[in-house]
Amino acid sequence: MFTLRSDLPLRGGGSGRFVASLVMVLVFIAAFAVTLSSYVGVLISGWERGVSGTLTVQVPAGENFDAEVAKTLDVLARHPAVAHASLVPRAQVDALLKPWIGEGAVKDLPLPALIDVEMRDSDPAAVAAVDASVKAAAPRAVIDEHRVGLARVASFARGLGGVAAAIIVLVTAALAVTIIFATRASLTECAQVIEVLHVVGAKDGYVAGQFARRALLQAVTGGVAGLALYAPALGIVAVLAARVDPEILPPAHLPLAHWLALALLPPAAGVLAMLSANITVRRTLAAKI
Amino acid sequence: MFTLRSDLPLRGGGSGRFVASLVMVLVFIAAFAVTLSSYVGVLISGWERGVSGTLTVQVPAGENFDAEVAKTLDVLARHPAVAHASLVPRAQVDALLKPWIGEGAVKDLPLPALIDVEMRDSDPAAVAAVDASVKAAAPRAVIDEHRVGLARVASFARGLGGVAAAIIVLVTAALAVTIIFATRASLTECAQVIEVLHVVGAKDGYVAGQFARRALLQAVTGGVAGLALYAPALGIVAVLAARVDPEILPPAHLPLAHWLALALLPPAAGVLAMLSANITVRRTLAAKI
Amino acid sequence: MNPPTPQVEKKLPGDTISLNQVGLRYDGGPEVLSDLSLTIAPGSFHFLTGPSGAGKTSLLSLMYLAKRPTRGRVLLFGEDTTAAKRTRLAIMRRRLGVVFQDFRLLDHMTAFDNVALPLRVAGVAPGVVQRDVTELLKWVGLENEMDKHPPALSGGQQQRVAIARAVVNRPKLILADEPTGNVDDAIALRLMTLFVELHKIGSSVIIATHNHALVERFPFPRLHLEDGVLTRMPAARN
Amino acid sequence: MNPPTPQVEKKLPGDTISLNQVGLRYDGGPEVLSDLSLTIAPGSFHFLTGPSGAGKTSLLSLMYLAKRPTRGRVLLFGEDTTAAKRTRLAIMRRRLGVVFQDFRLLDHMTAFDNVALPLRVAGVAPGVVQRDVTELLKWVGLENEMDKHPPALSGGQQQRVAIARAVVNRPKLILADEPTGNVDDAIALRLMTLFVELHKIGSSVIIATHNHALVERFPFPRLHLEDGVLTRMPAARN
Ligand SMILES: Nc1ncnc2c1ncn2[C@@H]1O[C@H](COP(=O)(O)OP(=O)(O)OP(=O)(O)O)[C@@H](O)[C@H]1O
Ligand SMILES: Nc1ncnc2c1ncn2[C@@H]1O[C@H](COP(=O)(O)OP(=O)(O)OP(=O)(O)O)[C@@H](O)[C@H]1O
Ligand SMILES: [Mg+2]
Ligand SMILES: [Mg+2]
To answer: Which among B72, B94, B96, B101 is the top mutation candidate for probing chain A, defined by the most A β-carbons within 10 Å of its own β-carbon?
Structure first.
């Protein structure tokens, strides 16, 4: 029996505003934890994808160098498993080497040509097919699959992802505990209301339902307010982060799942508050005859 | 007039335990924020130090190569501004270059010798003195001060440090707001106590003091409990983090300042709760004549 | 005013209330009520007297199902309350009207809503609620205070709201604890008339009171408690 | 029992309390008290009567400094309460003893601690507190309930604790709102004797009550309020 009429002080007193304010603050914190974890997740998977979907083809210096390079590029461009292949400009190769062998040395070196290859598809069969085509065009060419990097990044992803998940689980658990405490505390004010409703013959479900509905409303209100506060705060952090070298903190598109998780915070807080109100009231009632 | 006797339900009811539990949960979250920020700080300053205190001396290949290298090493070893100088093994140089120019090419290259130098002192005068000495020993030698790297790391440090600080400020502000709300909410139960104390002739300071002391005690208790929870949770996160490649998440010695900041959380929470109780009670009293 | 003779209206199956060898103690303390056996017939009217601390409120709280006896049995409207389910007890409470010694009004509701509460909990139609509550509040002299909240009412006004709440659903059994302690004699008489009217249309009434003038003025039988023991028995046994 | 003649003990400088053209309204409502002027002489004893809602509690609340009049002036012990600082008001309150109509006991304290509260707030030595409180609780017949908390006391027992708290610091002015509404006649008499004893050693007393028997039994003058207007004046002017 869902009635809109309530026997409780809905907008009233400290208690109501209190659960709402508290949920606001906590959803705000939790939203940051979720964002941090999503961002780390995006970085990780970006690296993983960046590495696992690419190959580097080296064509060593030697006779027919230019012809071999041109042919290799042509073969790669037309290979069905390849999305994109491009020669790394000599200036860039020089820049990469300069820290290690000095400016003077680099100029004189007979450097190999490097070709960055983005694969459409990175399963071993496709890699083998590309390898075969390249070898046909330039027998001395070497394909580097970034296997070592891949293994390292994968271990990184697992480890850092685990830590991020642990932190978000801890924060969410703390959030849940707090909402439960807060809801129960806000009910201590209402002992008399419970008592009177009980005495005039209200059934347990009626009484518990009244409080559960109120707690739900308060927590959802607070949760939405928390997200409303989070938005500009995230803006500030994003502006600060944008001033950092983008190679270190690359701008990332947070996935839809992240925004969904944020959108779920208020209803989740509401359900928690509702359940804890319901249980608390029923326990209070069970102590009466 | 500080009396130990209290007119308030000290250990009593939901209200008391509630502020304590809430502060516990929040100090737990804040401790994690502080730890994260400290850890980032340690990583940043580690990188900064690692780069800013080092030089790389390149001795290009050519005639008298071995003699020049030996002489340079000797000069560096005896230079007062140098803490430590060592030749980078050829294998390591090869490994550095391999990804860029391929295994085959590396073997045949006339690579320069690289000498890692750790400075005792990294001011420009010392660097210039080392430069002069090295040039005397091997005229073609080049000193790389890592200036570019330094600038980049410094910008990284500033940016990431700013973001970390922003997040910790936000979490701490949220913590403060919550403690204030919680303390005020726990006082709504006590309206009658305030009323009665007022009516029997207690002065404002006496009434406010009673509540402030109780709030202080509750918040400090909660804060200490929060740290007690944080310790094992940090242990779990540390164990998880240790399974990540140490080059990505290097184990860091958190500075004393970090532990001091954590130790300050409970008293800070206590002072906040105390002040907000005091102000709330005085405001309640001011509404009476 | 009618004499307290056994009532014409006897719609209810068994006795209104019946206590059998009942004892009550508060967590481990001495027995506040001992060996109480009494039967209240339907449509009867009793005063409950006794010195302060004798156990009047405790006895009433057994009757309005706020406490379980530590021994003995309480039967309400012929049903054993020990065996009954919680939902059943809630239904039984709706046939009771209770005036608490300390009123127990809800401060966040207006006087009107406080009185309307039992009707709303029982799911009575809004129109009926409006009519009954307004009429009753007029009768107790609060037509101008309907929209005030209890803290804005005087002590006597609060007491009248508490009485109105207790009788608004025309209960089968009215239990009133010191219902005239805060009003003057004129209003006390008016309130007593209300109880007598309800008694006439079939309610059983028990009024705990210290007001000797009241007890003497109305010719209803008296139950007298002294130290947890009943020294004057219900009407039916007199 | 002494007659209510002006007292021998006249330690206090001015009049105990004096209201001058006082009016009171609750946030924007009609005036609950209008044009009230009265002077209570030191060592006097008055009953305050009037129908429910007449303004008795409101008048007392002006006297015990819980409300400011919306117009007019209230002088307590010769001091203008409008001008006084908060600390000064607190000191003045310590010379008052107030029995609230709804008791206002602190549920988390025992009966003993509730009664001890005014002494402790005033910084009285623990030995004295122990002696005075015990003695007083014996006098009101609660020697066995000292360690109980208010929710474990009967209505009349709570009322007696409230009275003990009001008089424990031998106040210069006792303001009691319906102090015998929940006790039987024997205890009411005993409590009245307590007020009379305090009156004899110099306290002024004002008791708001509906209990006509009490008013008739004691030969003290009556202030009568009717709709916020004083229709019977204090003793000195009779
Ligand atoms: N919750 C409780 N816990 C412990 N003792 C209680 C409790 N409630 C009442 N008592 C004790 O039980 C006895 C009877 O109390 P009860 O309230 O029934 O008396 P009463 O007859 O209603 O008195 P009054 O006329 O003063 O209201 C008293 O001695 C009281 O102290
Ligand atoms: N806080 C308040 N806000 C608004 N109106 C109030 C408030 N307190 C009292 N009143 C109104 O003021 C009038 C006088 O109330 P007061 O409590 O002084 O009466 P009283 O003489 O003590 O009555 P009783 O004998 O019933 O206790 C009443 O009509 C009441 O409704
Ligand atoms: Mg009682
Ligand atoms: Mg009154």
So the answer is: B101
Cα separation, B215 vs B280, whole angstroms: 11
Q: Is the dihedral of CA B131, B135, B138, B144 positive or negative?
A: positive
Does D29 sit in the ligand 2 pocket, CB within 6 Å? yes
My answer on whether B268 and B178 are in the same domain is yes
pLDDT digit string, tens, across residues A241-264: 777 666 556 677 788 888 998 999
Q: Which of residues 7-36 of B touch D (CB under 8 A)?
A: 7-9, 12-13
Which residue is associated with the tokens 């300042």?
B257
Least confident of A46-55, B213-222, C173-182: A46-55
Contact B87, B115 (CB under 8 A): yes
Q: Are residues B67 and B42 in the same domain?
A: no
Q: Apex CA A90: angle with CA A86 and CA A96, to 5°?
A: 100
Check whether residue A110 and residue A184 sit in a common domain. no
Instruction: Tell me the C-alpha distance between A11 and A218, whole Å.
Output: 9
Contacts of A22 (CB under 8 A, 6+ apart): A178, A179, A182, A222, B22, B178, B181, B182
**Cα B109 from Cα A110, distance rounded (Å):** 8
Query: Is residue C213 within 6 Å of ligand 2 at its C-beta?
Result: no
Query: Is A261 domain-assigned?
Result: yes
Query: Counting beta carbons within 10 angstroms of the beta carbon of residue A95, is it exposed (0 to 12), middle (13 to 18) or buried (19 or more)?
Result: exposed
Identify whether residues A164 and A36 lie together within a single domain. yes
Residue D60 CA, closest ligand 2 atom number = 18
Q: What pTM was estimated for this model as a whole?
A: 0.78
Long-range contacts: B255-262, Cβ < 8 Å, 24+? B255/B38, B255/B42, B257/B38, B258/B34, B258/B35, B258/B38, B261/B34, B261/B38, B262/B31, B262/B34, B262/B35, B262/B227, B262/B230
Q: Which pLDDT value is given to residue D4?
A: 32
Render pLDDT for C168-212 as a digit per residue (tens, 0 to 9): 999 999 999 999 888 888 888 888 998 999 999 889 999 999 888
In a domain, B4, yes or no: no
A92 occurs within a structural domain: yes
A28 and A112 together in one domain? no
Neighbouring-strand partners of residue C204: C173
Nearest to D90 among B8, B193, B202 (CB): B202
Mutate which of C103, C147, C184 to disrupt the D interface (most D C-beta within 10 Å)? C184
Q: What is the value of ipTM here, to two decimals?
A: 0.79
Chain D residues with CB inside 8 Å of B206's CB?
Answer: 121
Distance from C-alpha of B243 to C-alpha of A160, rounded to nearest angstrom: 9
Give the residue with greater pLDDT, B170 vs D101. Answer: D101
Range of the domain at B67: 61-140
Average pLDDT over every residue of D200-211: 91
List the residue whose alpha carbon is closest to atom 13 of ligand 1.
C53
The arithmetic mean of pLDDT across residues D162-167, rounded, is: 94
Strand order through the sheet with A82-87? A82-87, A113-119, A54-59, A142-144
Q: How many domains does chain A have?
A: 2
Query: Which pLDDT belongs to residue A9?
Result: 67
pLDDT at B156: 60
Read off φ and ψ for residue A216, nearest 5 degrees: -55, -50
Q: Are residues A39 and A78 in the same domain?
A: no
Q: How far apart are the first and last CA of chain D?
A: 21
Beta partners for residue C40, in sequence order: C17
Measure in Å the smallest separation between the Cα of A128 and chain B Cα atoms.
19
Q: Which domains does chain C have, with CATH numbers?
A: 17-233 (3.40.50.300)
Candidates D107, D144, D147, D153: which one to mutate for ligand 1, based on the most atoms within 8 Å of Cβ? Answer: D153
Give the strand pairing for C45-49 and C204-208.
Answer: parallel
Q: Contact, B277 vs B219, CB < 8 A?
A: no
pLDDT of residue A104: 58
Contact criterion met (CB below 8 Å) for A222 and A273: no
